[in-house]
Amino acid sequence: MPFRTRYTGLIDKYRDRLPVHDDTRIISLGEGNTPLIRLNNIPRVIGKEVDIYVKFEGLNPTGSFKDRGMTMAVTRAVEEGSKAIICASTGNTSAAAAAYAARAGITAFVLIPEGKIAMGKLAQAMMHGAVVLQIRGNFDAGMRLVKEVAEAAPVTIVNSINPYRLQGQKTAAFEIVEELGRAPDYHCLPVGNAGNITAHWIGYCEYSSGSGDHVTEACTFCKGHCSYAGGAIVGNRPKMIGYQAAGSAPFMRGAMVDDPDTVATAIRIGHPQSWDQAWKVREESGGWFDECTDEEILAAQKLLAQNEGVFCEPASAASLAGALRDVKNGKIPEGSSIVCTLTGNGLKDPDTAISQCRADGTMLTIDATLDAVRDAILKGMEGN
Ligand SMILES: *Cc1c(COP(=O)(O)O)cnc(C)c1O
User: Fold this and answer.
1) Mean per-residue pLDDT, 274-294
2) Which atom of ligand 1 is nearest to the CA of 196?
3) 84 has which bridge partners?
4) Calpha distance 244→291 (Å, rounded)
5) Is 192 annotated as a binding residue?
6) Fold for the domain defined by 10-63+163-353
7) Contact 342, 57 (CB under 8 A)
8) Mind giving me the DSSP string for 132-186?
């Protein structure tokens, strides 16, 4: 076997554990294989001994974990002869759908909530040539419409209700187990539709039940598309913790929320599509749900950027905000290993970042003279 170094995407890497055929034409942009970064400075800042990692999914080709699901969903849609895909989106799904549709040579229709989508995501959907339909309504309204349209028109839904999405997304758990040599004790994720927390649990379960073994009994989560059937547990599985934004927290309320609101637009979802599955994940894993305020989310985003050099989008920071709070209050004991998924890249939402930092004088406007620059440097050094 020649030594092969070229990484060609997660379907190629995990094809024996994914629903693809030998001759399937794979639509890939090299997604997956994202870095698991150990936090060196933040544990010191909070004064706790924890082994905490961030899985930086913002380094996927379109800047979010949605690419993991989209490579699978679009690959299967094309294989099944579909000429168009459709999704409702808070932004990242539309960016991924647009890019993978472009790659495949098919059409993407995306429904986004007018005025509530981060600028980078809108730019992506438009640039990749999707038909962008801004609706005067939120994500949940868009999702309802997409389901109705797909019944009447020859378009494939690529939201996470498409079971292939979760199949692609489960590979993030595979990567983590392979890198750490075991599953972490706790896995923290931001929760919107709750597809990703479900997908991670599928991945951990498959891995812990003997990697790659195909079994015939249908999985309760994915209607027979995965290889997990609750077989013997060989490896460990993490407690799954889902953090929601306080203004958009149906899992905390125990009921759907009709007017969700949060600065973390990617999780501004009041009617989660994977409602039942996520409750089951919580129960089976022994984890929990909790909520973070917008202030906590933005503070964690900045803490991470300024202490570790990692820039994630606001929704992603909910996982870290919640994890740090639960470490501080002892719900997550010291000595634990923790993985926080950073679902999307900070560059997606420059407006929120800039307006947050403007307030604390990070940017100065000075004269173009040596004196002015020298004074500014001296003053800046004092702060350290
Ligand atoms: C989609 C998304 C989420 C939410 O994931 P769900 O699977 O809907 O729970 C969180 N963060 C970012 C950045 C996203 O794009």
Assistant:
1) 97
2) 7
3) 107
4) 5
5) yes
6) Rossmann fold (3.40.50)
7) yes
8) EEEESS-HHHHHHHHHHHHHHSS-EE-STTSHHHHHHHTHHHHHHHHHHSS--SE
Tokens of 232: 């013997």
Which residues have C-beta within 8 Å of that of residue 15, sequence separation ≥ 6? none
- CA 142 vs CA 111, 125, 148, 237, 301: distances in Å: 6, 16, 10, 35, 28
Q: Does the pLDDT value for residue 212 go beyond 50?
A: no
Atom 4 in ligand 1: which residue has the minimum CA distance?
Answer: 192
Q: What is the 42 CA–ligand 1 centroid distance (Å)? A: 24
Average pLDDT score over residue span 271-291: 97
Percent of the residues in the chain that have a pLDDT greater than 70, as a whole number: 92
Q: Distance between CA 345 and CA 365 in Å, rounded? A: 28
Both tokens of residue 283? Answer: 């129960």
Domain range annotation of the chain: 10-63+163-353, 65-157
Identical fold for domains 10-63+163-353 and 65-157, yes or no, is yes
Fold observed for domain 65-157: Rossmann fold (3.40.50)
| CA distances, 96 to each of 28, 54, 89, 210 (Å) | 11, 22, 10, 31
Q: Quick check: CB of 66 below 6 Å from ligand 1?
A: yes
Describe the crossing of helices 294-308 and 350-358 by its angle, rounded to 10 degrees: 90
